[in-house]
Amino acid sequence: MSEKLIHVIVPVGMLQCNCSILGDPGTREAIVVDPGDEVERILEILREHQLNVRAIVSTHTHIDHVGGLARLHAATKAPVLIHEADLQLYRHLDMQAQFLGMRTPESMRIEDFVKEGDSVRWGGYAARVIHTPGHTPGSISLLVESVPPDAGGYVARSRPQATKASAEAHLPAQLKTHAGESAPARGGAHGPGRLVSGDTLFQGSIGRTDLWGGSMKDILNSIREKLLALPDETLVIPGHGENTTIGAERAENPYLR
Q1: pTM to 2 decimal places
Q2: DSSP states of 202-240 as a string?
Q3: Superfamily covering domain 4-256
Q4: Which of 29, 84, 197, 257 has the lowest tally of Cβ within 10 angstroms?
């Protein structure tokens, strides 16, 4: 098991989406979450850390989170994973671009999907999928965990088609960091984890629900029933803005009172 998790958070694009690059420094395997834009910048960071991308994951398919998806896939040949409930939204990137007054980005055919409870694995780490609808029907959050080498799960492979297998849930690993720094990882069964929450939960706010497929009822249920069930110490990396913790949002977020 590697002792440190590489986690670089890169705000990209017009709306400054937080793209996460998560790598195992021992195996040099990585995943990239929400490559919304600035693909050359993302590739430069991957080269700097000598990381091989095993999977590209989108927390949802709004244009600011998937604008660079096709280009990153073309450069890395890594499988692209989304929740199937957001596939229809992805197929209408042209309408999303028109809404924002921007150019329509290149798109691709997505054939690999994740669902609640799946794990995307790279090196000694896994991202457990939590389906958190509300911002979009297929919004997901990713709980990053350290895992034993023989753990089951969805093992992403560096090819267009990935292989699916049943996954067992694992308790969070103890991970502490600041954006862009390596994080000490303690592989025990106790301690805080790290949640990439997409646009479901922000520091002091929640994702908007007035766009196609949005639901205030669903997003509040997702946060209260699934995300707030995590330990207070869990670090939250939202889709935009600054990091927070589950405990801080439980105590201070006005939408959750």
Answers
A1: 0.83
A2: ETTEE---SSTT--HHHHHHHIIIIITTS-TT-EEEESS
A3: Ribonuclease Z/Hydroxyacylglutathione hydrolase-like (3.60.15.10)
A4: 257
